[in-house]
Amino acid sequence: MNLLRSRRIAPVTLLTATIVASTLTACTSSTPSGETATGYEPGTVVRVIDGDTLVITFDGSDQTVRLLNVDTPETKHPDKPVECLGAEATEKLESMTPPGTKVALDFDVERTDRYDRVLAAVFIEDQTLVNAELARVGLGVPILIEPNSKYYDEVQTAYNEAESEGIGLLDPAQGCTLPAEVADAAEALTTATEAPVGETAPAAAATAAGIVAALTTATAAREAIDAGEDTVRVLALGATRAATMARGLDTQIADAEKKLTTVTTTVTALEKAEEDRLAAEAEAARVAEAERVEEERVRAEAAEAARVETERLQAEADARAEADRLAAEAAAAEQERIRNLPAVPAPAPIPAPAPAPAPYVPPAQPSVAPAPPAAEDPYPGYTGPRCYAPGGKTYRPC
Length: 398
What we know:
By secondary structure, this protein is α+β, with helices and mostly antiparallel strands. The protein folds into two domains: 3-170, CATH 2.40.50.90; 172-335. The chain is 51% helix and 11% strand. It has eight helices and nine strands. A five-stranded mixed beta barrel has the order 1-2-3-6-5. α5 (178-194) packs antiparallel against α6, α5 (178-194) crosses α8 (239-339) and α6 runs antiparallel to α8 (239-339). The longest helix has 101 residues, at 239-339. The chain is rod-shaped and about 210 Å long.
């Protein structure tokens, strides 16, 4: 009979005896070296605290028991958040050891830890080693804290099954697991680096932003592998698998950083080209506006000159019309005045021509002929226009 088989038969026998007995009795003894001899302690589960800790009544009191050689994600740590699948590990332990469950406990070299929790392997009546069962479903990982190594191999063997099946903390379908996080980060890097850069600065900038976001996610996953050596998520991977994942991420991160440099350079060039284009458009718009303003000024000046010339011509025309009107009025007034003048008397009859002079006979002595009498003015005091009769001797008012 092998050691594993003997370990399982002993707790079953003990549990059967415990159910019959009215009291629980201790079956352990210590060797001089402090190691626990073959023997199991019967107990009754009071409650489950988290995935690897529960309260069991044995040896006459309720005692907190920490499962040997297995570690599950934290749910009650005062300085840590609830870890990935921590609640599921707690539920699994609760399903195997509900309150009142009869169990058998086995111990190793060191019986308590620094928190005064009892370190034990816990068996239930169907011979199941609870410590190993948590590992078998991938909700707990094997841990070896010397000198307690008694159940490490059995827990490790159970965990190997979980690794083969890729379940629990190794399940990439569970979003919080490190395999899932690394797979998501790798996929995001691939998508971001294969995205088209685009022909405009905004499109290229969007591609760069996608690469930056993917790098942030991948870097966080990479740091989780490095910084989480003591966390269940990383322990679940194992050193070899963790190193492989880290190398894969390192390669993708390096490639993404190179692509980001290229895209960033493209963004800068496109932004410069866009700035130049906008500057050229602005200058063209400025020149066009200046030309428009100048054209409007020239048109306005021409329109103003035309308006002034039109007004001048109109003023001259108005002045001529006014002068013509005034002249017409003056002429009409003069005609009216003349029409209203008294009638002009008939001119004096023209005197008969003098008889032809006698042949000249020189006088013996010269003599001066008397001046003819002056014609009498028929319109004394008249100073207006005069219309003279033939000969220019008489006139009438015009």
